[in-house]
Amino acid sequence: MLIQSRPSTDPELVALVTAQQRELREADGGLDGQVTVVRDDARYLVCVVDGRAVACGGLQALGDGVGEIKRMYVRPAHRGRGIARQLLLALEEFARAAGHRVLRLETGTYLPAAIGLYASAGYDRIPVYGEYVDNPYSVCFEKSLTVPA
């Protein structure tokens, strides 16, 4: 598996984010009719297996040393192989290199596997923030990236 940075205009990244958004709409019963596309203000990593992009995740700056993980997604046929965990670790390193000391993220109550991944990777549940405050299905997490002395 290869994890590489890709621009927001990369066709394989756009296809992954489109699949992620479609799957989210199906998982939440279409409750959130809003379609979110690839964000130009985020930086992205893509996981490539056997020459095919199979997973992605983004990093967006929130300010004051805080970054937010966006668009974490692994194609269904590639789940259960540890790809999401490896991608999450790569995003954390990506965030450290960008100067972030804290990472936040949002997921949905209807995604128990995602909640389990983040909790097992050391993310603590926090109150919903920002654009997620009015979404009753949002679950937010945070992790300090600082290394204890």
Automatic annotation (TrEMBL):
<feature type="domain" description="N-acetyltransferase">
    <location>
        <begin position="1"/>
        <end position="146"/>
    </location>
</feature>
<dbReference type="Pfam" id="PF00583">
    <property type="entry name" value="Acetyltransf_1"/>
</dbReference>
<keyword id="KW-0012">Acyltransferase</keyword>
<keyword id="KW-0808">Transferase</keyword>
<dbReference type="InterPro" id="IPR050832">
    <property type="entry name" value="Bact_Acetyltransf"/>
</dbReference>
<protein>
    <submittedName>
        <fullName>Acetyltransferase (GNAT) family protein</fullName>
    </submittedName>
</protein>
<dbReference type="GO" id="GO:0016747">
    <property type="term" value="F:acyltransferase activity, transferring groups other than amino-acyl groups"/>
</dbReference>
<dbReference type="InterPro" id="IPR016181">
    <property type="entry name" value="Acyl_CoA_acyltransferase"/>
</dbReference>
<dbReference type="InterPro" id="IPR000182">
    <property type="entry name" value="GNAT_dom"/>
</dbReference>
